[in-house]
Amino acid sequence: MIIPIICEVMLLGREGFEQLLGFHAAPMLMGLKSASLLSFQKSRFEDFEGLLASYMQCFNCKGISVFRLSEGEEYVLLLFYRQRALMKDLAHPLAKKILVRLGYRGDDTLMGMLEYLKLRMQLRKSFPHEVGLFLGYPPEDVEGFIRHKGQDFSYSGYWKVYANERETRALFDLYADCTHDFCLRLEGGASLPDLVKAV
Questions:
Q1: Max intra-chain CA distance, the chain
Q2: Is residue 44 classed as helix, strand or coil in its secondary structure?
Q3: Which InterPro entries does the annotation name (predicted)?
Q4: Residue 173 main-chain phi, psi, to 5 deg
Q5: Domains of the chain: which residue ranges?
Q6: Residues 49, 43: contact at Cβ < 8 Å?
Q7: Residue 42: what pLDDT?
Q8: According to the model, what pLDDT value does residue 3 have?
Q9: 10-residue block means of pLDDT along the chain (199 residues)?
Q10: Any idea what DSSP says for residue 133?
Q11: Strand partners, 40
Q12: How many C-beta atoms surround the C-beta of residue 108 within 10 A?
């Protein structure tokens, strides 16, 4: 006789939500990076929408916005971003050139660009290469990734590196240290709203 094994999925609460954010978005939460992209399985939370809503005041007062890039019944893909920093990243001449080449309007608002990125994701059913620009990746590395089809990179870490390897390795180390410190402080009992930096 086969005895069925029943696995109960443990629901994540506030602590689990904060740990996910800390592990995947600490550099953005600390103002070192303009944006982070996180996927949440909504059924893993008792009330995901309520939980997210409970953090919105904290995010807003610390300069962080949230944009739904993709959403299905089970998963939601959220872009957490700092508007001023992201606008600066996207205004870089090479970033603008890449975006215009891919159909973005050169004079569009940030929200217009985010909506167009969302549309491109829906049409392609995958991540368009320019998503790196919306995550604060250097435009030279995004351009290198597009030109070389993700091959022939000089180094790989948070993204594939095609230019300025030494500086980018140092930046990756900074991100890793930030994430380690942030998660340690969360585990030590600090609350996420207290840790998030306003910039």
A1: 68
A2: helix
A3: DUF3793
A4: -65, -40
A5: 14-189
A6: no
A7: 93
A8: 44
A9: 44 87 97 97 92 94 96 95 97 97 94 97 88 97 95 95 96 98 95 92
A10: G
A11: 76
A12: 15
Residue 1 structure tokens: 């006789």
pTM of the shown model: 0.91
Cα 104 to Cα 58, 99, 153: the distances in Å are: 31, 5, 26
Give the whole-angstrom CA distance, residue 185 versus residue 192: 9
CA–CA distance, 178 with 32 (Å, rounded to integer): 9
Measure Cα distances from 184 to 7, 26, 64, 181 in Å: 29, 11, 22, 5
Residues near 109 by beta carbon (within 8 Å), at least 6 away in sequence: none
Count Cα atoms within 13 angstroms, Cβ side, for 191: 5
Report CA Rg, the chain. 18
End-to-end CA distance of the chain: 62
According to DSSP H, which parts of the chain are helical?
14-29, 48-61, 83-91, 93-101, 110-124, 139-147, 165-187, 192-195
Integer Cα distance of 114 and 15 in angstroms? 29
Position 10 scores a pLDDT of 60
* Strand (E) or helix (H) holding 75: strand 75-81
Name beta bridge partners: 37. Answer: 79
d(CA 180, CA 27): 10
Separation CA 29–CA 14 (nearest Å): 17
107-111-113-115 Cα dihedral, nearest 10 degrees? -140
